Amino acid sequence: MALLVTRRRGGETLPSREFEDVYDRLGQLMSAALGETEGGVMGPWIPMADVSETENSFVVEVDVPGVSKDQIDVQLSERELIVSGQIEEREHERRHRKTRRTGRFELRTLLPGDVDDERVDARLHDGVLTLTIPKAEAAKPRHIEISA
């Protein structure tokens, strides 16, 4: 069984931000599944995404099929990454089936370490937005010499 990571703030133990993210996402999923809306408008849906790490950077790949770069907004504030946008529904004379998501989407994720937000590389290719976010120098692993 995995243990819940906690933070300490002023002597008080709080659940980690990651737990809060999971809780928020579960709430969005349940609202969407039950057809609940906010003000009569369905809230944003969350695109599929992978977050991975190399020695020097974090790599985030977000599935956004059929979306152009002009329809996507990417924001990075400290370690929080927000990818949002809108997929317009296409008009069809007669629709037989609809399983593709349309409307507003938003992915929020907290990156697992400090980042250099001045050198982020964003590329959109074949419906996948790939963000390469360099780690801050303080977050990179360093070799520590052992003395006698």
From TrEMBL:
It holds the Pfam family HSP20. Residues 40-148 form the SHSP domain. Transmembrane segments: none annotated. InterPro entries: A-crystallin/Hsp20_dom, HSP20-like_chaperone, Small_HSP. SUPFAM superfamilies: HSP20-like chaperones. Signal peptide: none annotated. It comes from the Bacteria. CDD domains: ACD_sHsps-like (cd06464). Belongs to the small heat shock protein (HSP20) family. This is Heat-shock protein Hsp20. It comes from Nonomuraea cavernae.
